Amino acid sequence: MSALTTVGTRYLPTVTLPFGITWSTVVFAVRTTAASLTALYIALALDLGEAKWAAMTVWIVAQPTRGMSLSKAQYRLAGTLVGAFVSILLVSAFAQTPELFFLALAAWLAVCTAASTAFRNFRSYAAVLAGYTAAIVGIAGANQPGLLFDLAVARVAYISLGVVTEALFAALFTPGRPLDAMRGRLEAFLRAAATTASRALRGEDTATTVQSTLAAAIELETLGEYAAAGSLQARRGYKHLRASIVSALSQMAAVHALVEHTSNTSEPIAAWRAELADRFDLVAAGGMGTDGDINGLIATLEDGRGQPLNSDANFNEILLAHRQKLIVESGIQALMHFARIRSTDPAASTDFSFHLDVKAIGVNGLRAFFAVLAAATFWIESAWPSGGSMVVIVAVVVGLFASRPNGLLAGIGFVKGAVASITVAGICNFVLLPEVTWFPALAAITAPFLILGGIAMRMPSVAAPASSFTLFVWDLIGPDNAARTDFGPFANSGLALLMGIASGTVMFALIFPYRPASVRRGLLGAVGRDLQSIGRNAGSWSEHQWLTRMADRVGRHLAASRTAPPADRERELRAMLASLVLGHSALAMSCLVQDDDSELRRPVATILRRISLGRPEKVAVEAARAATRLEHHSSRKTLSPRRRWQFAAAAVYTSNVAATARFNRHLLEIEGKKP
User: Does domain 178-339 correspond to CATH entry 1.25.40?
Assistant: First the structure.
């Protein structure tokens, strides 16, 4: 039976909707349909020519939240302007030499596709758009060089109209407040991080939970970027969001370091760990609605620091206090930044760093180059009138799906949506619309199909086909002030659409096919190289950069390892989490060193040098020796309390490095090859 979802809104009574549909999904579909029809009406009234592009643009930029819509809209406009400008350059330079024109166009698409792989979020989309806009305008302009500039201006006009219309409808009719949505998601993330910390402190296996929480951190940062695009208040709170995320990541790294250090001992769970776990349970379950609630949770963690140490405290007491401090302070900082999200208090800039897959950048660029050349060659040799449209669709598919984990599966979903759009457009063009000359009648006939497509776009299981349907159905209906589409051109357009999507999709299977095992090896290799980079030059790294880049990689590994053998997935995950601890400890250890402090500088430099050489067994040995020496220094009662604390802190980090490297021998090996 279909699942039923009960949803209440401010304007509608609580009712049940079938198939898991929510009222927010219905609002999105109706809003976007209305915006699409409005853009189409304005374009027809202004007699812009191909008015369908304005209506199509609305569906392309439509997103469930105001911030996402505005962010995508601005990047779409930027990508369109760049693509239109490049198309003018290409046609002007190679109008008389089609072979060189297609070679240059393929090269431009390769550059744009490679750039889209390197970028994130809608910046990636802008790069893709700059590529296939050049193909759309350039191929049309190559046949009519005299109208090239007019075509480029018209293309920009269509896009601008669609972008502005969708943005207005999103601003007026998108429910909710971006700041509240951002704060709510951060609250859920902090509760999950606190729960994970509590379980780990109690000795439970939390590797899988840590993986999902790290992946959620990157998703939350993305949501914050979109919220900031739609609200000035959210933009002010965005820095606090980032700072809170990084503090929570630091908390998880500190807890996992403790787990790595004690996982291979038979010692029972210490009482202080159980007590601290209880405090994190209170954070996970406590209220965060007001500043008073948050201050209460902060006080709960503050009490977990323990009593101040006496000057004659022994090493074990100092060590215990430092481990507590690392875990508790990070949790407190996460809550403090959470409390300031709604305030106007400034926050320091927090660097987020993301994984850059150089191999994928090159592979996707080359795939786009060869795919466009192959499609162009087919068009030239066959002299098919609709061949240009097929080349454009190939460019769209290979660019749009390049950054997806599996472009082949995405392309198959697009084919399904294209078939649906051809079917609906055929029914509309040749059954329902032949006698229609009044725009309200056109709107009434097409709206139900569009609303259903919009609802399907918000359902993950059919989102890809639905996106394809809403993108292409207006293109195939082709509403125009002058005439209706004849069957011959319609059939050619439909065939070009299917062939273009199918050809572009096949390229993902033929040219550098997606191999999850290779992706996982690449991630592990990148982790090893970055650890070696920290060993060579720790000063060029920050804690923020390391934690966020590792969170991004752990999330990517989660996506690439779904079909991997469980044993391989488990081993690789634990290696990545151990790498997170090793890099975090190495950076923290290097920060303790002062230029004139030879007693600390020598052991730290030795460990970092071993890390830079990629020799985990040597790292473990040297770190264990260094930890022993630092423990001895910290036990000297003649030193000041601050100095003893400094040595104990270094001992904590070196013991973390020793434990991590000892039980994860392949951490520093590049792509499974021993150094």
Answer: no
Contact yes or no for 109/136 (Cβ under 8 A): no
In the chain, domain spans = 4-175+355-510, 178-339, 531-663
Helices (H), 593-640: 598-613, 616-634
Closest by CA to 547, choosing from 578, 591, 583, is 583
Per-residue pLDDT of 262-281, as tens digits, reads 655 555 667 888 888 999 99
CA dist 192 to 89, 325, 568, Å? 52, 20, 26
pLDDT digits (tens, 9 = 90+) for 419-429: 999 999 999 98
Over the stretch 105-141, which tens digit does the pLDDT of each residue have?
A: 999 999 999 999 999 888 898 998 899 889 888 888 7
Residue 105 makes CB contacts below 8 A (sequence gap 6+) with: 90, 134, 135, 138, 139, 372, 376
Tokens at residue 665, please? 């021998």
Distance CA 662, CA 624 (A): 9
pLDDT attached to residue 240: 93
Q: Work out the average pLDDT over 4-32.
A: 68
* Per-residue tokens: 208: 């899988």
- Residue 587 CA: distances (Å) to CA of 88, 92, 212, 538, 600: 50, 53, 24, 6, 14
With contact defined as beta carbons under 8 Å apart, do 651 and 592 qualify? no
Quick one: 247 exposed, middle or buried, by C-beta within 10 A (0-12, 13-18, 19+)?
buried
- For residues 29-55, give the mean pLDDT: 89
15: β partners: 7
Q: Are 251 and 329 in contact (CB under 8 A)?
A: no
**What residues does 5 pair with on adjacent strands?**
17
User: Residue 231: what residue type?
Assistant: S
3-state secondary structure (DSSP) of residue 6? strand
Dump pLDDT digits (tens) for 331-369: 999 999 999 998 877 777 888 899 999 999 999 999 999
Higher pLDDT, 9 or 113: 113
The residue whose two tokens read 């590797």 is 207
Neighbouring residues of 374: CB distance < 8 A, sequence distance ≥ 6: 394, 503, 507
